[in-house]
Amino acid sequence: xxxxxxxxxGNFYLKDEYTNVTPKILSYLNRNLHIQQNHPLCxxxxxxxxxxxxxxxxxxxxxxxxxxxxxxxxxxxxxxxxSLLIEPSHPSRTKSDCYYINNNYLLRGHTTAxxxxxxxxxxxxxxVIGDVYRRDEIxxxxxxxxxxxxxxxxxxxxQLFKNNDELQLFELGDNVEGGKQTxxxxxxxxxxxxxxxxxxxxxxxxLFGKDVEYRWVETQFPFTCPSWELxxxxxxxWLELLGCGIMKQPILTEAGVVDxxxxxxxxxxERVAMKLYQIPxxxxxxxxxxxxxxxxxxxxxxxxVVYKTVSQFPxxxxxxxxxxxxxxxxxxxxxxxxxxxxxxDIVEQVNLVDSFVHPKSKQTSHCxxxxxxxxxxxxxxxxVNLVHKKIEDEAAEKLGVKIR
Length: 404
Ligand code: PHE
Description:
Strand order of the largest sheet: 3-6-7-13-12-11-10
Catalytic activity: tRNA(Phe) + L-phenylalanine + ATP = L-phenylalanyl-tRNA(Phe) + AMP + diphosphate + H(+)
Subcellular location: Mitochondrion matrix
Strand content: 25-35%
CATH topology of the largest domain: BirA Bifunctional Protein, domain 2
InterPro entries: aa-tRNA-synth_II, aa-tRNA-synth_II/BPL/LPL, Fdx_antiC-bd, Fdx_antiC-bd_sf, Phe-tRNA-synth_IIc_mito, Phenylalanyl-tRNA_Synthase
Main location: mitochondrion
Order of helices and strands: EEHHEEHEHEEHEEHEEEHEHHEHEEHE
Largest sheet: 7 strands, mixed
Helix content: 25-40%
CATH architecture of the largest domain: 2-Layer Sandwich
Family: Belongs to the class-II aminoacyl-tRNA synthetase family.
Bound molecules: phenylalanine
Shape: globular
Number of strands: 17
């Protein structure tokens, strides 16, 4: 059967009812923007890596952290979720949030997916950098592919407490109380929290300047406890920079580590680059246009580039209205993917502008406004109409909706 398999990065996978990767999404694999010289995402990545190289050195003056930036984004469900204690019922696992290759494999939703395997391989201080894939809405700050950097730092008792024999990492307990894992001593958690926060405030300052205003917000991740988000004040708004926390001990035990505790964090590169260089639209990172790329051509990691919009081409807005299929399994993310596949990168935004249920027929109607804008030229209404019509036709055919 010609349609029963799918090839990704040279490997063959059987399709099943989970398969929802699209050829459009697969076309982003191996672009590797985060290692493309002078690409703004690579500049940000270099800045962060340099900060870790400079801040953490061994007695010989060599960097302690090692960097992994070419691990394939195809991961197993075990890597992306199970190894991180993400419950089977957790919403981040659903088909409407992830790009599944089949029920066993997916495009990673975070670089944290590699945490357990690298610890198992014997590493105790590392950075993982790569492309991650999430089904999401469409606007100037969301794109189904973006880039993350994750870090892990483990400590033995002697490293953390400088050989002070009085202090211990562990005590008896296997649950959570007072916002802390009961298997950890209070002194170990507090010292680790202090070191983690000091490291990340230093990172924020090295990116956005010594005077950057920040605040810590308590949060929850399935794989850390306690957990925090670091927010930065940026033009009167609080911007979430990263998530972090003390690693859940069972992750380490499962990976064969019984005498260490550690911290971890994860951060999105696009968000940092957009603020740092004042890049207004997330699609620009994928531009191959010299008008964009040349502005970063001579930059080093420390150069302060301010992106200048070459010219702002006009938007074109077209609405699409349809009755949802009667079987009720319509999901907006399916529609967004279809719009991306058919419309490609000229789609700037898709917004649900109206939704109602017909009083008699009980059918649900959705109206979406699709905003089209090309990054490098003016689109004509005729060009847009052709694409828009194709989206209507495919939505009717593939999603079973009835165009109104
Ligand atoms: N994986 C988390 C995310 O994608 C970030 C994170 C990494 C948080 C490591 C805590 C520890 O949002």
